[in-house]
Design goal:
It contains seven helices and seven strands; from the N terminus they run βαβαβαβαβαβααβ. It is an alpha/beta fold. The radius of gyration is 18 Å and the shape is globular. The structure holds nicotinamide-adenine-dinucleotide (NAD).
């Protein structure tokens, strides 16, 4: 039976890409979703598509007051909250030598501090109610490999990994599981570079499973980590990348020993 029937999830960055697909899949499995995003037009459009199981709240995850409002929205609309997916990201893709202090700070504010603030608001609420819950933070394979030219992105995502693990060990006693999922290249509005056929081809060839990832590939992993099937899984990162991060030796000559 679905773990989502009658349950409610807040999804930050839920108006687009991976967050959008997670929202759609949770509703398809009988759950409710609060879509929290700075993109009001897209968020409202998705919420109305999801009907009575979807709600939108204008949310800037870097503001603690907004995060509390997202919890209040879940409670007032659906009577409570059980799951949180942190998917919001702000990009400042530049070589580090060119990156401004403002871009550095704002990107950390959204990607790392925002993950902390939203998770803390969620955990405080569940503790007050004495209820269990589960969080999935969307990290990246860029957390394990420095993504040159992406500005603070890799530092943000590496921070998300450790933050995930610390929240998991601190909140396990309250029945809150916290995991991360590290996607490889996924076709979303964030990765418009895939429209360039040359880039697309080369990224496809680099992946052992020979295709670019889709939001559904990530959503399947997120729903597993949130579900009862993962009831003994916490403090871990699930990499979903078609195998690309394990290909280092494919690029080194001299693999034959005979
Ligand atoms: N697409 C990929 O290839 C890929 C790979 C690895 C990791 N990821 C991660 O997956 C997550 C989702 O990415 P995506 O590809 O779906 O991107 P996306 O651009 O489609 O979605 C990101 C959403 O975050 C929202 N957002 C931006 N600032 C916000 C803020 N301050 N508060 C709340 N929402 C805010 C945007 O409005 C947007 O709707 C991100 O954390 C990203 O780093 C994506």
């Amino acid at each position: 039976m679905s773990s989502f029937i009658g349950k409610t999830a807040i999804i930050t960055g839920g108006a687009s890409g991976i967050g959008q697909r997670v929202a759609e899949d949770i509703v398809a499995q009988g759950g409710n979703v609060v879509i929290g995003d700075v993109n009001v037009a897209l968020g409202k459009k998705l919420a109305s598509k999801l009907g009575s199981h979807g709600s939108f709240v204008e949310l800037d995850v870097s503001r603690g007051a907004d995060c509390s409002l997202a919890i209040e929205t879940a409670v007032s609309t659906f009577g409570g909250v059980n799951f949180l997916v942190n998917s919001a990201i702000r990009m400042a893709a530049k070589p580090l030598i060119e990156l401004s202090e403002t871009d550095w700070r704002k990107t950390l504010d959204v990607g790392l501090t925002g993950t902390f603030l939203m998770s803390q608001a969620f955990a405080r609420h569940l503790n007050k109610k004495g209820s269990p819950g589960a969080i999935v933070n969307i990290s990246s394979i860029g957390a394990q490999h420095p993504y040159g030219g992406s500005g603070p992105y890799s530092a943000v995502k590496a921070g998300v990994t450790l933050l995930t693990e610390q929240m998991a060990i601190e909140w396990a006693e309250h029945g809150i599981r916290v995991n991360a999922l590290a996607p490889g290249t996924i076709e979303t509005p964030l990765t418009t570079y895939l429209k360039d056929p040359e880039v697309r081809e080369s990224r496809t060839r680099a992946v052992p499973l020979q295709r670019i990832g889709q939001p559904a590939d990530i959503s399947n992993g997120v729903l597993y980590l949130l579900s009862d099937s993962a009831s003994w899984v916490t403090a871990t990162t699930l990499t979903v990348d078609g195998g690309v991060t394990k290909t280092l030796f494919n690029y080194l000559k001299g693999r034959g020993w005979s």
